[in-house]
Amino acid sequence: MSDPLTPPEPRASELIGQALGSAARRAGLDPATDASTGDVVWRAMGGWRGIVESVLPGLVFVLVYTLTYDARSGVGDLGWSLGLSVGIAAVFTIVRLLGHSAPTAALGGLIAAAAAAGLALLTGRGEDNFVLGFITNGAYGTAFLVSVLVGWPLIGLAAGWLTGDATGWRRDRRKRRVFFWLSIAWAGLFAARLAVQLPFYFAGDVTVLGTLKIAMGLPLFAPLVAVTWLACRALYARRAEVGTDSDQTAAE
Question: Which residue ranges traverse the bilayer (predicted)?
């Protein structure tokens, strides 16, 4: 028999919503702030610093690999390409740690870059530097798709936690429909990356593959963040307006 004084254990949906909502808030997607869509997207990308940290290591890898490409052997200089790429990521990480950034956030990108480089060096194939990225996109895309199929779209869970709506949005057909399509859009983004990039991975075309990874990164991420933010803000702004009108009516 449960103790009535003991608070109930949080459900899985609440835990997932809290985790997603916390991540979104750290990324600057906080509905409590009165920010423009441009400001929100800019914060989500990490500003100039986040853009440089996201793009430069991959860009250096592609440029060095292409410039050192040997047509006879069919490969570029992996040592220099990966060494410079990971080295730049290490410098960014050190700067963040010196700036008292959270160690987990600062080290996460470096560990991922080093692991991807290690795999490429182990196999001797430059295209294997992108394998972990494929796995990440596949995992995220699958999570969004499964969440829609089971009726708990991840965008809804995050928005519910951020706005204090918890799982109340599931009783609103309009919100369910919006969160359904937003989650489908995010699943589509990750699926599109795999569909476009995997053929070049199997063809061993490192230069095109690296270029596509950069082109399908922030340039696709930013617009989808903007659409998600605008849609969620519209849904909950409508609720706030209804609440304000009700308060005014009651006062009269």
Answer: 50-68, 80-98, 105-123, 143-166, 178-202, 214-236
